[in-house]
Amino acid sequence: MTIRVWLCSTVECVQTLSGHTGWIRALALNHRGKLYSGSYDTTIRVWSTSEHTHVRRLTGHTHYVHALAIDRDGMLFSGSWDTTIKVWSGT
């Protein structure tokens, strides 16, 4: 599954981010230029918005990741159908 990065001023797709093996259900963007994606493959992927590259893969959920949120301190929260909410720091 992919995420497409669009340049709004020209409506042009400038990058396609690939890595997930299941449907992508959640996205979150932090103020430091990282994009987070949550997927049916039970993982969260971290992407660099400036480089348009994959940074790391977060594992720990045992079912679909359906929700992502970032607090003002940059802490990432993920919610899953495995009935857990995980808190990720240093991501």
How would you summarize the topology of this molecule?
Layout: E1 2-7, E2 12-18, E3 24-29, E4 34-39, E5 44-48, E6 53-58, E7 65-70, E8 76-80, E9 85-88
Structure write-up:
A hairpin with a 4-residue loop joins strand 4 and strand 5. A four-stranded antiparallel β-sheet has the order 3-4-5-6, with no helix packed on it. Strands 7-8-9 form a three-stranded antiparallel β-sheet, with no helix packed on it. A two-stranded antiparallel sheet has the order 1-2. By secondary structure, the protein is an all-beta fold. It contains no helices and nine strands.
Key terms for this structure?
91 residues, mainly beta, four-stranded antiparallel sheet, three-stranded antiparallel sheet, 0% helix, globular
- Number of DSSP helical runs: 0
> How many strand segments?
9
Tell me the radius of gyration: 13 Å
SSE class = mainly beta
Mean pLDDT: 94
Tertiary shape: globular
SSE sequence, one letter per element: EEEEEEEEE
Strand content: over 45%
- Intertermini distance: 22 Å
Main-sheet strand order equals 3-4-5-6
Helix content range of the residues, please?
Answer: under 10%
Low-pLDDT stretches are none
